[in-house]
Every structure is written in structure tokens, then in C-alpha cells.
Write a structure and sequence with these properties.
disordered N terminus
């Protein structure tokens, strides 16, 4: 009887682990597949994403992506003197997502109204410069953000974003190019820590000179592992943080 109980408990633990959030060096996350999603023939897909730009390094990053024939996604802000590069991003057939206008956590997360007012401002800038209304976005700091009181209203923001027709995208691979990595080698060490995931969303920043240095290595790494590079869209699987 004891042996039977132990076997049952082990099987239950195995089943629960299969449906629990995945854990990596960045924390726990879930991959949300849109209804009707069909896996690509390659089965492994990587999405390169760049936050907080456009910036002075954006043109160099665009050149690298063109050279390697790789699409990417840029989550853009509005309080930068380089917003004109949004047009270049669109002209190079990359995806544009909304990040925020101000990227001021205290201001953005002071209330739901403040958040959506800020989101509308960057949406209008993207429309003016690229002629599109983007329905993909990334929270400043991600959906796991703590600064500025974000967690106090995060669930409300997620629900209202969905009602307004947006999808938000976190990441399960962080280059740490803005928070610790000082060299290309260090950034790649963080990149390689993601493990063997079928869906990888890489967080990078086009505001950093370091990104220009290590980006070709990122492309080489994932291409060598057989990943297909795609831009994000509403039909893409989404990584959502669970912490």
C-alpha cells in the first residue's frame, strides 16, 4: 500500500510540474499561445526585441539586422530626440511595439488613467511616423515591474489592455545589457542561460553601445541552434512573467 501511495504521489508531482510556470535565471514565466497557433516547421523560434529606443545606436542595429537578414521587434518610447528612426524601423520591415512615451515609472504607474494616457501618446507618435497603429506592447520594466507602484495596478492594466485589443510581451532571455553586462562575453553568458526553449524572446536595448557589439553573436548563436527569427505580432506566442 505504501509503495502504491508513493508511486501515485510521484506521478501527481510529475503532472503538476508539466503545467507549472517554467523557471529560468530571470524567474518563472509562462508561454501563452494564441488560439489557433500552429508551430513553425522549424519548431524553434526566437524573437529579438529592443527596448527604450529609438536611440543613436538604432541605425547601426538596423544595419546588422539587414546584413544578417534577420527581422526584429522594437518597443519604442517617445521622450527621445531619435523618434525619427521609427520610420526607418518600419521601412526595414521590422515590427514596432509600444513601450511608453515617458518611461517614467512613477508617472506611468500612478494610475490606470495615467498609464493609458501615456500609451496613447506613443501610439500617436508611431502612427504619425510609421503609419501604423501597433497592438503589441511591453510594460516598462515588464509585467513583473515593482518600481513606481506598478504591481498595485498591474492586474487591472493587463485586463484593460486585453479589452482594448492589445497583447503584451515580456521576455524569457535577458542580455542584461542595461543592468550588469559590461562586455559582449558577459551579455552572451546571459543569453545562453535561457536553455533549450522552443520559444525565446530576447530582451535587448538599442540605447546601449554594447548591443551593437554583441548582436552579431546573438544571431550567430541562435542560428547555430536552428532557431527561426521572426518579428512579434498578435499571432505570436507571448512570454508572460509569473512573479
Amino acid at each position: 500500500m505504501k509503495k502504491t501511495i508513493i508511486v501515485c504521489i510521484a506521478l501527481l508531482a510529475l503532472l503538476l510540474s508539466a503545467f507549472s510556470p517554467k523557471n529560468t535565471s530571470i524567474g518563472a514565466f509562462s508561454i501563452i499561445y494564441p488560439e489557433g497557433y500552429e508551430a513553425r516547421e522549424s519548431s524553434k523560434v526566437v524573437y529579438l526585441t529592443f527596448d527604450d529606443g529609438p536611440a543613436k545606436y538604432t541605425p547601426e542595429i538596423l544595419e546588422i539586422l539587414t546584413k544578417h537578414d534577420v527581422p526584429a521587434t522594437f518597443f519604442v518610447v517617445g521622450n527621445t530626440p531619435y523618434t525619427h528612426y521609427i520610420s526607418d524601423i518600419a521601412e526595414n520591415s521590422h515590427a514596432i511595439g509600444l513601450h511608453s512615451y515617458s518611461h517614467n515609472f512613477r508617472q506611468i504607474y500612478s494610475s490606470a488613467q495615467a498609464f493609458f494616457d501615456d500609451l496613447q501618446k506613443i501610439d500617436d507618435i508611431v502612427y504619425e511616423l510609421a503609419g501604423i497603429r501597433s497592438n503589441i506592447m511591453r510594460f516598462p520594466g515588464g509585467s513583473s515591474a515593482r518600481a513606481g507602484g506598478a504591481q498595485r495596478i498591474m492586474e487591472q492594466l493587463k485586463e484593460e489592455l486585453s479589452e482594448r485589443g492589445y497583447q503584451y510581451f515580456d521576455w524569457n532571455c535577458d542580455s542584461s545589457d542595461k543592468r550588469g553586462a559590461k562586455t559582449a562575453h558577459q551579455a552572451m553568458r546571459h543569453i545562453k542561460a535561457v536553455g533549450d526553449e522552443d520559444v525565446v524572446i530576447v530582451l535587448m536595448h538599442d540605447t546601449q553601445a554594447l548591443t551593437v557589439e554583441y548582436l552579431p553573436l546573438v544571431i550567430e548563436h541562435f542560428r547555430g541552434l536552428g532557431y527561426e527569427f521572426l518579428p512579434l505580432c498578435m499571432g505570436s506566442p507571448a512570454v508572460h512573467h509569473d512573479w
